[in-house]
Design goal:
Strand order of the largest sheet: 2-1-5-4-3
CATH topology of the domain at 381-575: Heat Shock Protein 90
Radius of gyration: 60 Å
Shape: rod-shaped
CATH architecture of the domain at 381-575: 2-Layer Sandwich
Strand content: 15-25%
Number of helices: 16
Helix content: 40-55%
Number of strands: 17
CATH superfamily of the domain at 381-575: Histidine kinase-like ATPase, C-terminal domain
Length: 588
């Protein structure tokens, strides 16, 4: 079942609307800027990485061209055997090798594997082993074509095993007989020469460059040892699918930017690998700054939205406060609320309406005051001639019985009863005077009913001069006698207690041991609405309750509880007010 939400305030609606529009616009602009900046960073990272790979390729091409130059020079020297001796040719070649740290050796073989020229004087492996090596077999039969054989352990000499890259080419030379013959030129280069070119290329923190040959086999890789140990894998399949160009892929959980270029002279392919999370590190910093700025903007937007909405809604809320005050009963003239024209006009109209209502309320109050006076007079009139007749009849009967003391007691009580009832026309008397009135009434009734009941009256100390409206206890006592104790076979009891109930309330408690009331009759009396019970019970009770609420408000009145054959308890609750002076009634 869905919950129905109440209407929201204008301030909330304005704040929400302004904040949503502003924040949405800010987020849209931020998203566009982020997208453009992200695209720019990605593009710049790609261009930068491609440029680094291109530079490595250019350096490698430059290096291979230099090797080709050396090879060409060696080929030219091998054709000058008529002018130069073998020793002089070897000396010139050695001077080149000695001047370069990257060249290990330079050797010219015949097609059977015999050494014709060499820059190193060291024992050479048998020619059967030499002619079976890859660099020899690849160049054999391909005159004019040169080949670069990837990094391998040199297997030429029996005394040294350097890690080299081999250049091999079948060339023509002039033999000792002056005839043109075919030979195979070999130049071994340090592997470090190529690795330094690749290691100098920085593609982020962990990016790298490696080479593969036409068959997709690795020629050089900075993690070659880890690959050989199966501790590192390279995504060669994706590289084989992309012969040339740039692409991105996910490998081992990381997005990589892969750039492939061709090394012209070596017929290799250079592969640059850069990790996007490193290339986009600037974007991460930008994102952090943007989030901080965006959060700051959102906070500022919300604060501005609240300020603007508060400025707009403040007059309306002030008008609402005045309306709530009127709703609570404060009809003092409301001040005119400032603000925009609409609110000001509404405020003026409201002020006129409150003025009219206050005037009507004053008229109603006057009418209620008159009604209350009439009700009070009507209650006082309940001490009617019938009561007076019964009382005087009892006096005559006691006089005939020569009960002088009883006559005096009843006449004295009747006189006091009427004096307090009149109370110089005042509606408010002290609690002690109200209890004195009830005591005199009970004395008269006790004599009339020939001691059918007894009563007690008690009050907490210090409450004697606290004020109360008059004639509110006597109707309750009368109701207890006529509808409760009157029908008892045994002695009746009426207990009246006055005490304070916190906070700031006075309780007058009237308890009797009469026949009590059933639930239906009690509900009729408690409801204080509808017609009275057919027995007449509850008329005086209802009158007292309405008078108390009319005078003191709806928080006060009567509390009644009763059970059949147990009795009835009535509590009159009135507010505690400042003490007053009792009314001094002249003695007869």
């Amino acid at each position: 079942m869905s919950t129905i939400r109440g209407p929201h305030s204008i301030k909330t609606i304005l704040t929400f609307a302004i904040a949503v529009v502003s924040i949405s616009f800010t987020l849209l602009v931020s998203a566009i800027l982020f997208s453009q900046f992200s695209s720019t960073i990605r593009e710049n990272a790609t261009v930068s990485t491609r440029e680094i790979v291109r530079q490595v390729n250019a350096n490698l091409n430059y290096y291979t061209n230099d090797i080709l130059t050396v090879a060409g020079y060696a080929g030219d020297l091998s054709k000058q055997t008529n002018n130069l001796s073998r020793t002089e040719i070897e000396q010139r070649l050695r001077s080149i090798v000695d001047s370069r740290q990257d060249i290990v050796c330079l050797i010219l073989f015949d097609l059977e594997g015999n050494i014709l020229l060499s820059t190193i004087d060291a024992p050479v492996r048998p020619k059967e082993e030499l002619t079976n090596q890859t660099w020899f077999t690849r160049a054999l039969g391909g005159e004019g074509n040169f080949y670069f054989t990837g990094p391998h352990v040199q297997q030429l000499f029996t005394s040294s095993y350097p890690w080299v890259i081999t250049y091999s080419q079948q060339i023509s030379y002039i033999n000792e007989e002056g005839e043109l013959s075919q030979g195979l030129l070999l130049i071994d280069m340090n592997f470090s020469a190529v690795s330094e070119l690749c290691q100098s290329a920085k593609l982020g923190n962990t990016g790298y460059v490696y080479f593969i040959d036409n068959n997709g086999k690795i020629v050089y890789h900075p993690y070659q040892q880890l690959i050989n140990s199966n501790l590192f894998d390279e995504d060669l399949d994706s590289v084989q699918e992309h012969i040339f160009g740039t692409f991105t892929n996910i490998f081992e959980g990381r997005e990589r930017l892969v750039i492939i270029n061709t090394v012209n002279n070596a017929r290799w392919r250079i592969v640059g690998v850069a990790y996007m999370d490193e290339l986009m590190a600037g974007l991460n910093q930008y994102t952090t700054v943007m989030i901080i700025v965006l959060a700051f903007c959102i906070v500022i937007t919300i604060l501005l939205a609240r300020s603007v909405s508060a400025y707009i809604s403040r007059p309306i809320r002030e008008l609402e406060r005045l309306m709530n005050s009127v709703e609570r009963g404060d009809f003092s003239a409301p001040p005119t609320v400032g603000g925009n024209q609409e609110v000001a006009a509404l405020s003026q109209t409201f002020a006129l309406m409150v003025g009219r209502i206050r005037q009507l309320m004053d008229d109603i109050v006057k009418s209620q005051e008159m009604k209350r006076k009439f009700e009070l007079d009507a209650l006082q009139a309940k001490i009617n001639p019938h009561f007076l007749y019964n009382t005087l009849d009892s006096v005559v009967w006691m006089a005939e019985q020569n009960d002088t003391e009883g006559v005096i007691t009843m006449i004295t009580a009747l006189a006091k009863l009427f004096r307090i009832s009149i109370s110089k026309g005042r509606d408010i008397i002290t609690l002690s005077e109200e209890l004195e009135h009830v005591r005199n009434y009970l004395i008269i009734q006790q004599i009339r009913y020939q001691d059918k009941f007894e009563f007690t009256i008690s009050m907490e100390e210090g409450m004697e001069n606290l004020p109360t409206i008059k004639l509110i206890v006597q109707p309750i006592v009368e109701n207890a006698i006529y509808h409760g104790i009157k029908y008892l076979q045994e002695m009746g009891h009426i207990d009246i207690k006055v005490f304070k109930r916190k906070p700031g309330a006075i309780v007058i408690e009237v308890r009797d041991n009469g026949v009590g009331m059933d639930a239906q009759k009690l509900d009729t009396i408690l409801s204080l609405e509808g017609p009275p019970h057919k027995s007449g019970a509850g008329i005086g009770v209802r009158n007292v309750h309405q008078r108390i609420q009319l005078y003191y408000g709806s928080d006060y009145g009567l509390e009644i509880s009763s059970e059949l054959d147990e009795g009835t308890l009535v509590r009159l609750v009135i507010p505690e007010q400042a003490p007053i002076h009792p009314i001094k009634v002249a003695q007869p």
